[in-house]
Model the fold of this input.
Amino acid sequence: MLMKGITLVKLGGSLITDKSKPFTARNDVISRLCREIKEAQPMPLVVGHGGGSFPHQSAARYETQKGAINENSWEGFCAVQNDAAKLNRIVVNAMLEAGIHAVSFQPSASCITENGRIKEWDMKALERMLDAGVVPVPYGDVAVDKKQGMSIISTEEILLYLAEKLKAKRVLFCGKTDGVFTADPGKDGNATLIKEITKKNFSEVRGYLTGSDGTDVTGGMLHKVERALEIARKGVTVEIINGAKDGMLKRALMGEAGLGTVIR
Done:
């Protein structure tokens, strides 16, 4: 029987990889985040992660987000899946080394999408893992698509689907900034943190949002906030926090609120 109060976590691709250098994992950051997860030990738990500098390069080259558009598209589909899985093995290995009973959960093996939105995904195996105290680790991946032939599914789309199906209690998006800002805080000293985003102020916030740094075919910060709002509308608490700061993920997992941008 599926346990209640599930927490979903996303480790951002820009946090766990160097997006300016292809296939470059930040192993020290990944190991620290895994230790924080182990120390907080919230259960049941699903930990997803973005692709960062691993699949985004090949996805951009083959334009996989546009679907099966030419004779090279399925070659690209395979390349993107393989690149995404490489990072997933690094993350899962770090979790195992931290003492977490984690297992890779490959979305492309069972997800069916329509225009990039997940429509079918059998949850039976994942639910059994959660009941057994195992932490499933899905990741941004490719999928067979009913309309386009193929699509890219972001980790945000995955967590949105899981939040509804698993009746999640909360979702934490772990990036490398303190939350959502009025401008890029790395480039604009006047950028201020937006503490709360709701349906009412989203039209204003939308004007501040830009694409993420590095190559990203999943839509950057705007996509993240749009999916987070969809999750929040289902009654789930969503917060975007700074995983680059030591202990921040642990504090959030232990129940501390207001650490970043809350989305309701």
Notes: Residues 7-50+84-108+118-141+156-263 form a domain with the Carbamate kinase fold (CATH 3.40.1160.10). The CA atoms of residues 58 and 92 lie 22 Å apart. The chain has a mean pLDDT of 93. The chain is about 35% helix and 20% strand.
